[in-house]
Amino acid sequence: MTIKDKIKNLSKNHLEEIIEIRRHLHANPELSFEEFKTSEYICSILDKWNVSYQKGFVKTGILAIIDTKRPGKTIALRADMDALPIQEKNDLSFKSKNHNVMHACGHDVHSASLLGVIKILNEIKDELNGKILFIFQPGEEKIPGGAKQMIEAGIFKDNEPDLVIAQHVCPNMPAGEVGFRQGQYMASSDEIYITVKGKGGHAALPESLIDPVLMAGQLLVSLQQIVSRNNKPGLPTVLSFGNIIANGAVNVIPDEVKLEGTFRTMNEDWRKKAHELIKKISEQTTAAFGGSAEIEIRKGYPVLFNDPEFTDTASQLAVEYLGNDKVKALDIRMTAEDFAYFSQKYHSFLYRLGTAESGVASTALHTSGFKVNEDALEYGMGLMSWISFKLQ
Questions:
Q1: What is the pLDDT of residue 335?
Q2: Cα separation of 40 and 38, whole Å?
Q3: CATH number for the domain running over 190-298
Q4: Can you tell me the distance from the alpha carbon of 252 to that of 289, in angstroms, rounded to the nearest whole number?
Q5: Would you call 47 exposed, middle or buried from its count of C-beta atoms within 10 A (0-12, 13-18, 19+)?
Q6: Helix and strand counts by DSSP (H, E) for the chain
Q7: I need a surface site. Which of 9, 127, 242, 369 has the fewest CB within 10 A?
Q8: What's residue 357's pLDDT?
Q9: Can 3-186+303-390 and 190-298 be said to share one CATH topology?
Q10: Which of 375, 370, 380 is nearest to 29 (CA)?
Q11: Residue 379 annotated among the catalytic residues of the structure
Q12: d(CA 86, CA 363)
């Protein structure tokens, strides 16, 4: 029996156990940097399987290790563990037990799949070389991100990786399919907080006011010029504001208005320049009305870059494992991922794992009705095991 066939058989044999692990994680979600019970549960499984690990990175992070003691690459595989502040509306026997907390981004699938990879590779350890590192990471959903903090905490202090790999669920792709993209794949992500300050008062006496609502409206329009008139056409960029707080009334103009939004792009130089323009336009626009603006830009995740050579090789390995019709080319995404911190420092790539049921309308990430086809776990643990074995 070939290694590929052995991995496929092990993936099928362990699917039921890994589904149960995934359901436990799904029913017991925890928010970013609060994954204490999740971490304990994962450690208990590693103990049961007699897999070596270190814990306590950024409080809840775990690094499990399979060391063959033979020459070869050090390959790190990463899964995130945190959930989102969403109340689940799915009618499932294993729906979230925790109020307003839900695995609506598939991190339960990521962690369960990585545990499946550990189980498979540990069973074929005699045929491996080098080291395989398994990262269970906290806080992907919240700036500054667990990836950055785990790197700074020295997770690779004694095990510098030659390659870091992650997979992420894709609800728009059927289970059994995967997607790859070389080079720039996911955008940087920054949070924008602007407080427009004026002079409030009675809405019937506009001549005595410095109206921050009017200033905020003009500012929203003016800021869009950053994308339409300062950005190079063809460079993906998004500037959106999703929260506006005035706290006035029908006849009351408030003293200030708060604007909260996000800036995303695929170019780090342009990102820096755009931050400067956001501050400049905010200050000048409000000053023209006699008001002022306080601007805070919380710099989030950088651009996620997939190493072209390793990504191309991995996509060909996926063809070998799944078949040519099951491997798709991905478009860029303006969503963000803190795996980007690994990609900025190490040869890395992130690929997509299809989780949709054939013929069933997909449910979007970060929504209360998000579901996955659990058959995807068989391909998630199998393909990652195959890629890790071949890239040693």
A1: 96
A2: 5
A3: 3.30.70.360
A4: 19
A5: exposed
A6: 10, 16
A7: 242
A8: 83
A9: no
A10: 370
A11: no
A12: 14
Q: Which of 358, 312, 352 is nearest to 330 (CA)?
A: 352
Could you state, in order of their start, the residue ranges of all structural domains in the chain? 3-186+303-390, 190-298
Global confidence as pTM? 0.94
Instruction: Summarize pLDDT for 287-309 with one digit per residue, the tens.
Output: 999 999 999 999 999 999 999 99
The contacts of residue 9 (CB under 8 Å, 6+ apart) are 1
374 noted as active-site residue: yes
Summarised one tens digit per residue, pLDDT across range 267-288 is: 999 999 999 999 999 999 999 9
Q: How far apart are the first and last CA of the chain?
A: 20
pLDDT digits (tens, 9 = 90+) for 146-179: 999 999 999 999 899 999 999 999 999 999 999 9
> pLDDT for 107-141, tens place per residue?
999 999 999 999 999 999 999 999 999 999 999 99
Catalytic option among 301, 321, 341, 351: 301
Helices 308-322 and 3-27: crossing angle in degrees, nearest 10, is 100
Q: Catalytic residue among 256, 374, 378, 379, which?
A: 374
Look at residue 362 and tell me whether its pLDDT is greater than 90: no
Q: Structurally, what CATH architecture does the domain formed by 3-186+303-390 represent?
A: 3-Layer(aba) Sandwich (3.40)
Take residue 294 and report the two structure tokens written for it: 């306080």
Q: Which residue has the tokens 């979007």?
A: 364
Rg (alpha carbons) of the chain, rounded to whole number: 24
pLDDT for position 361: 62
84-92 contacts: CB < 8 A, separation 24 or more? 84/29, 84/31, 84/141, 84/366, 85/31, 86/366, 86/367, 86/368, 87/368, 88/368, 89/368, 89/369, 90/368, 90/369, 90/370, 90/371, 92/26, 92/371
Going from the C-alpha of 15 to that of each of 64, 177, 326, the distances in angstroms are 21, 17, 20
